[in-house]
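hey m, so remember when u said the tokens were messed up on ur end? i reran from scratch. heres the input so u can diff it against urs
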Amino acid sequence: MIDTSRIEISGAGLRCTDVVRAARRSAWTELTPDALTRAGQSYELAVELGAKGAVYGRTTGVGANRHIVVDPGAADLHGLRLLRSHAGGSGEPLSDDAVRAVMVIRLNQLAAAGSGVHPRLLRALEQALRVGALPLVHTRGAIGTGDLTALAEIALTLAGELPWASGGIEPVPISPGDALAFISSNAATLGEAVLAWHDLSRLLAASHVVTALTFRALGGSAEAYDERVHAARPHPGSVRCAADLRRLLTGSGDPLPGRRLQDPFGLRAFPQVQGAALDAAARVGEVLEVDVNAAAENPLIDAETHQAYHHGQFSTAQVALAFDYLRAALHHIAELSAARLSDLVEPDISGLPPFLADGPAGSSGIMILEYVSHDALGTLRHAASPVTLGTAVISRGLEDHASFSTHAVRSTVTATAAYRTVLACELLGAVRALRMAGTELPDTPLREAYRLATTELPHIAEDHPLSTEIRQAEHLLDRFSTL
């Protein structure tokens, strides 16, 4: 039997879902013996190369100090000075799950054996993860060219120079050359990125269920989701989305006829718009799985050629651009959700009272949900602005480009939270409309979704505050993601 609670760390094959499981404590990590062996060989080669000639960050300073040679007799102190000077993060601490994600990714990257760090640093990270020891890592200090401040904080904590935020292990020495080799990574950005991608992917899955509920409430036409339609223009995400809607709406039976010849765009064009977001999320996942398994340290200590290669692998333009595109796609599908909510409160489309009011004349029903939805949509619109249109020139002009991938990821977290609210407002409208009309749902997972919704969300006919129900609907979306 395969032990699904154990994740092997070998420097290759780590999946984003593995990182999430380890970060959120549903699995534990273990280094493979060959990973430690390869790391040891890389370390010995790095020492040998440093003894023969200049190796950036090992025998020299860093950044604009790259040409300054370090006294070989003080190389160990140079490493500690480098860590101390770079551990200057600020802002709020990273969440516990994000810190664990950082540690898992950095451990796997080091196991790829391109950094030349001493193997004891790998063992220390593995032990800290196993016993639940967490360093204090600050959020601010990265611009997409290496998470120097965050990783310096982790390294100094492993060395015993900074206190653990929780738990702890015995301090480990920092070998000469270990400092830059350990912090030359974007593992902190990648850790947050993997969690953001995972949470948004679940919300995208839930949005299919919410849209299907609205479709039934509005008597939509399933023609728009027919397999023949999407085979004629087979973008992968659109094909996948249409197939999922068919699964939810019809199961093995024939679709019910719609009320209209053509539905509003919120229903009719949903696979096309949602499909772009699904494809964007898939692209983000591909980019992240390359990077979490990458030996991207500068310089690369290559055991095959016995060379140290100086390079620009610290650039995270791929991550930043992929997340910028994903947020833009997310804004489009959020606009459709807000449009479907407007359809639900419009009698000419729903066949129900204005604003789904169920009380005396002039009752407002769920009128306020449109305000809440568009407020959240406005937040999402601002968060969707591309971060990749700016850059930075630092270190006396030597480092003249930055991707700001960290900011692309955090903007995605903000956008996802806003979309959750937009989708929750639509869900409340769809469930209320289905209740009022007494609509029969097909015997598919959609019926289970409606059962969950009617169990969790109260039906209060008269006008009342909706804040609690919005919050309940937001939580319910996580359960929809697995239907």
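this time it looks ok to me. The mean pLDDT is 94. if urs says something different then somethings off w ur setup not the seq
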